[in-house]
Amino acid sequence: MKKIPVVFCFDDNWELPAGVCLTSLLVNANPDTFYDIFILHSAGCTFPDGKLNELPVRYGNCRITFRSVGREFENAFEIRGITVATYYRLLIPEIVPEYDKIIYSDVDVIFRKDLTQIYESTDLTNLYVAGVVDPTPDAYSHHKHIKNLGLAPESYVYAGNLIINSKQLRKDGIVQKFIKEANHSKHSLQDMDIINIVCKGKIKKIAPEFCLSLTVRLCAFSQDEPLFYTNQELDESLKDGIVHYTGPKPWIQICPDFDIWWEYYRKSIFFDQKYYFDFFNRKMDEYDLLPLWKRIKILARWFVFRPK
């Protein structure tokens, strides 16, 4: 049995998408994979639905441990409605000391295959973290932001899917540097900026299949030459990469790959027929009421971004 530690950080408001995310992780596990799952949360979280505890009973290939981070980051900078829970990943090496190497993932994610291969094959010797960089050649504003931080776009990784060298981070006292940066700075991309600033020079770029973000998908369908990855790597990410809903959320609105999320929602312990019906019925009503020019715009967008 291969044991893979995976950490998630979220609060009560994200219990449903977290349940769908974890369902996708467990459904796609290899027969010999066991996921040791840790959920980091604030002191005030209660997870009132209680269904997350049913996952180990249903699947048997996991253990779920809840760990409070207390009141840490209570006064940290917030922007765009993203809560302080986003900073909790910075504490992983100390809150989960059992492991020297850990996968971190946001919960607005759908896993489509087992994580053993990428976990075991990613060598982090003398490095801090591994992740996916933004491959879009036209992301000039994003690249400008990165350069203003004194960083290089080719090594600035997304923070939503990471492989973390916890042993090295503990050894070098990096968690305290994370905390200091979070409590004394106002970075527009919050924890993502902090991780890339503090870990500068100790970051590994890995394949885009580890974080199929909206920008990765747009780049895969674009006629422009991608940065940092090959077209083959981008194509492979489309097949079974980890879908990360970095923009619109599929449980709120129609968005790219929303059908994948709802597929796993139907498989999850959170499935509720009325919730499912109400969502799609409401969306049909919304589109029926759209003016003609907006309907044409939606059609045009489909023709531009449809799979080739």
Report on the structure:
The chain is an alpha/beta fold and 308 residues long. It folds into two domains: 2-271, Spore Coat Polysaccharide Biosynthesis Protein SpsA, Chain A (Alpha-Beta Complex); 275-308, no CATH class. The protein contains 13 helices and nine strands. It has a seven-stranded mixed β-sheet. The protein has a two-stranded antiparallel ribbon with strand order 5-9. α7 crosses α8 and α9 (214-221) crosses α10. The chain is globular. The model has no long low-confidence stretch (mean pLDDT 88).
The portion of residues assigned to helices is 25-40%
Q: Helix and strand string, N-terminal first?
A: EHEHEHEEHEHEHHHEHHEHHH
- Proportion of residues in extended strands: 5-15%
Total strand segments: 9
- The coarse overall form would be globular
Q: What is the number of domains?
A: 2
In CATH terms, the superfamily of the largest domain is: Spore Coat Polysaccharide Biosynthesis Protein SpsA, Chain A
CATH architecture verdict of the largest domain: Alpha-Beta Complex
Indicate the mean pLDDT: 88
Q: Structural class, from helix and strand content? A: alpha/beta
Poorly predicted sequence stretches spanning 5 or more consecutive residues: none
What's the Cα radius of gyration? 19 Å
Largest sheet: 7 strands, mixed
- Please give the count of helices: 13
Look up the CATH topology of the largest domain.
Answer: Spore Coat Polysaccharide Biosynthesis Protein SpsA, Chain A
Strand order of the largest sheet: 3-2-1-4-7-6-8
The level 1 CATH classification of the largest domain is: Alpha Beta
**N-to-C span:** 39 Å
